[in-house]
Amino acid sequence: MEKILFLDIETIPQYPSYDDCPDELKKLWNHKSQNLKKDENETTGDIYNRAGIYAEFGRIVCISTGIIRDNNGIPELRIKSFYGDDETLLLSEFAELLNKHFSKSDSKLCAHNGREFDFPYIARRMVINSIPLPVILDTAGKKPWEVNYLDTMEMWKFGDFKSYTPLTLLAYSLGIPSPKDDIDGSMVWSVYWKDKDLNRIMTYCEKDVEALTNVYLRMKGFPIIPKEKIVKV
């Protein structure tokens, strides 16, 4: 368990609104967003708030991590967040953590839908920010069994590839407190660009890591970690 880094990320569009984008980026978003419209009356500007889920149009404002440690025979979850307006800095600090503590062959990264979103998004943004990829994120040329990723959504599928189960639903099903008691992912862009409340985003991200860790423990047959045994570092 101590070799697993549980994580979640929060992302936003690179600019406050479509009108604030450089002209070239607007053209690229116009092309990208053609297939994203849910209503024929929607414009590319109307759906710009969704740009944050694409690494080419968004950026990371928070990476929250959790590590299980033994404290006199009692497991505790230690939470640490890398967050701020400077994406290059937070990614560099996160890369330093991976290089220092999660570079061995038995190290693992765990996230909910991490294979499809968190892990590749982090790797792409590191490349864009000219940050050398830590070994654990550099999957080029690796065989599937050599990629050290754990994905709780994938675990929950049990081979059923046609379903998507959000972390909130899975947590509820397993009797774990919901991480979405304040905001949800669709609100992050507004909380950042309109409310300027990065601490609120960080708190939300950390709650996701708490829920993620306990979902993983429940699926492995272990007791969940109670709130009083969750430590912020």
Q: How would you summarize what this structure contains?
A:
By secondary structure, the chain is α/β, with parallel strands linked by helices. It is 33% helix and 19% strand.
Task: Describe this protein's structure.
This protein has helices spanning 23-33, 87-101, 118-128, 152-157, 167-173, 188-193, 198-219, and strands spanning 4-13, 58-71, 74-83, 108-111, 149-151, 230-232. With 233 residues, it is α/β, with parallel strands linked by helices. The chain has a single domain (4-232), classed as Nucleotidyltransferase, domain 5 (2-Layer Sandwich), CATH 3.30.420.10. The relative contact order is 0.18.
Radius of gyration: 18 Å
Q: What is the tally of helical segments?
A: 7
Q: Give helix and strand order, one letter per element, not per position.
A: EHEEHEHEHHHHE
Structural class: alpha/beta
Overall shape: it is globular
Strand order of the largest sheet: 5-4-1-2-3-6
**CATH class wording:** Alpha Beta
Beta-strand residue fraction: 15-25%
Number of structural units classed as domains: 1
**Mean of the pLDDT scores?**
93
Largest sheet: 6 strands, mixed
Q: State the assembly state of the protein chains.
A: single chain
- CATH architecture descriptor name: 2-Layer Sandwich
Low-confidence segments, given as residue ranges, are: none
What is the CATH third-level topology name? Nucleotidyltransferase, domain 5
Q: In whole angstroms, how far apart are the ends?
A: 18 Å
The tally of beta strands, per DSSP, is: 6
Helix content bin:
25-40%
Task: Name the CATH superfamily assignment.
Answer: Ribonuclease H-like superfamily/Ribonuclease H
